[in-house]
């Protein structure tokens, strides 16, 4: 299957992308991974992307699309892929459509992971990260440490990262509403959009998404 995942920050899209890719046996292609892989391998696209990033500028769509095209052309993506974090704008969605048409490929579905804005703010703003090891993450409500402000694993100090602060989260959501949310209507008009509730246990959300994909596949 060829699937695009969309959803606001904090909806758990990254977690679900990894789980769905494993269950569907297709590669999980994320924008972040594309950038890191191309930059570390020092590909021409990687060098170009790094030049923009080092200058504090946004990487142009054509560079991101070029990376995505190269990745989707690899053998493990021949039978399908799951795109996470791309496209982010209608212009990128249009460019992706053009790319897929040139390869005689069609998307099967676009999964929109939906969660109330206040729940997203609670999820992100409640995170606390260990200063000693950023892999140790707790939540003041959903997974609090045994001792407030102290990491259960190593005893390090827990703190709130700047990008987890409520004000920052709300700004990120504003950017999402302005730049990315319009692609929901774009894909809805194509009959590809499937809305998935991002509330509940992780496994329950995964099964919800898989069930929706099976229904879409049966309908085609």
UniProtKB/TrEMBL annotation:
What's the catalysed reaction? Answer: AMP + ATP = 2 ADP
Annotated region NMP: the residues are 30-59
**Involved pathway(s):** Purine metabolism; AMP biosynthesis via salvage pathway; AMP from ADP: step 1/1
List residues of the Adenylate kinase active site lid domain: 127-163
Q: Which Pfam families match?
A: ADK (PF00406), ADK_lid (PF05191)
The principal localisation class reads cytoplasm
E.C. designation(s): 2.7.4.3
Oligomeric state and interaction partners are given as:
Monomer.
Q: What PANTHER family does the record point to?
A: NUCLEOTIDE KINASE (PTHR23359)
What exactly does this protein do? Answer: Catalyzes the reversible transfer of the terminal phosphate group between ATP and AMP. Plays an important role in cellular energy homeostasis and in adenine nucleotide metabolism.
Question: What family does this belong to?
Answer: Belongs to the adenylate kinase family.
Instruction: Identify the HAMAP family for this entry.
Output: Adenylate_kinase_Adk
Name this protein carries in UniProt: Adenylate kinase
Species this protein is from:
Streptomyces thermogriseus
